[in-house]
Amino acid sequence: MTSPTILMVPGLRDHVAEHWQTLLEAKLPNARSVPPLELDKLSRAARVSALDEALAAIDGPVILVAHSAGVMITAHWARAHQRPIHGALLVTPADLESPMPQGYPATDVLRDNGWLPIPRERLPFPSILASSENDPLCNAQRATELAKSWGSLIVDLGKVGHLNPAAGYGPWPQAEALIESLR
User: Fold this and answer.
1) CB within 8 Å of 131: residues ≥ 6 apart
2) According to the model, what pLDDT value does residue 2 have?
3) pLDDT tens by residue, 132-174
């Protein structure tokens, strides 16, 4: 069997040089990322389309590795597309239905750009939702509810904040083990 391509699905801040997704993409031989948007950066439809275009450029099996709003992009994509996905690692989702911290888009802006409501349908592929006990963008109870709705195995990462550079994370070695469990 062909080894799956690992496709990174970043959140709304796109590609950050010190982010674990960017570092992991550079490390793994069969990894790539959904390209950053130049226009319509807050448009859910544009983000889902960018994911679909990135998937169309890949032959063979794919494992999605989504972070933050990238998890929501993945959930929205899954409800409207039929391409088989080998599995998905969904890391510290952003609960876009709850007010976000300062510096993030307001709930009404997210609604106006098509992000709400969050899809609750079971994902048509195996998935792991890795959550944080102290994520400022999604509390642990909400992450558990999303995992249950999507049929995802939930992995408690402990107190890792939003698992991004602001929370002190660059490299995140556990990602490789979680991806391996989806192979």
Assistant:
1) 92, 93, 138, 140, 143, 144, 147, 154, 155, 156, 157
2) 76
3) 999 999 999 999 999 999 999 999 999 999 999 999 999 999 9
Long-range contacts of 53-56 (CB under 8 A, 24+ apart): 54/7, 55/7, 55/81, 55/83
The separation between the first and the last C-alpha atoms of the chain, rounded to the nearest angstrom, is: 11
Smallest Cα–Cα separation from 41: which of 18, 69, 16?
69
Distance CA 177, CA 110 (A): 33
Describe the strand order of the beta sheet including 5-9 as a list of residue ranges: 31-33, 5-9, 62-68, 87-93, 127-131, 153-156
Amino acid sitting at position 66: A
